[in-house]
Amino acid sequence: MTPRATPWSAVLAAFVGLSALAPVQAGADTWKPVRLLPAYRNECGTCHAPYPPGLLPAASWQRLMGTLPHHYGADASLDAPAAAALSAWLAANAAVPRRSREAPAQDRITRSRWFVREHDEVPPAAWTSAAVKSPANCGACHAQAADGDFDERRVRIPR
Fold first, then answer.
1. Which of the residues 28, 34, 71, 139 could staple to 24 if both were Cys, CB 3.0 to 4.6 A apart?
2. pLDDT class for 20, splitting at 50, 70, 90?
């Protein structure tokens, strides 16, 4: 008998090397990896880690895609066809309701409940160190973040 997946099992899977997560089928108890869309990796991954779409609910992705000219203080505008394609892909691969009951503050992955819980052992000073700078800088501790690999066994918090 297979143990039932919980909302946090999906988060655990993200941290053991999956690029992103999506349910195999509606109501399924298992999860499968979703490869990052090359356009997403190219457009979004040039400024920050291309976050797996399963880390935010669809409503958050919709708001983020709708405000690209003012994306956290930067202009991340895309042409209409590219924005539409990325929006559709993000929505299709977003966190499912049982995994993400509410959008995090300001639609920031780093303010989601699971992120805070997963990173509770990180010393507060690490977030503001010159090597890390902010919780959004995944690559500072997760060397393979750009490839969707967040395996805890390979985490190295800079000192």
1. 28
2. very low
Has residue 120 been placed in a domain?
yes
Bridging pattern class, strands 31-33 and 21-23: antiparallel
Task: Put residue 104 in one of left, alpha, beta given phi > 0 → left and psi -120 to 50 → alpha.
Answer: beta
* Overall domain count for the chain: 1
Q: Which domain holds residue 128?
A: 7-154
The model carries a pTM of: 0.71
Geometric angle at alpha carbon 100, from 97 and 104, rounded to 5° = 135
Rounded Cα–Cα distance for residues 139 and 145 (Å): 5
Max CA separation in the chain (angstroms):
50
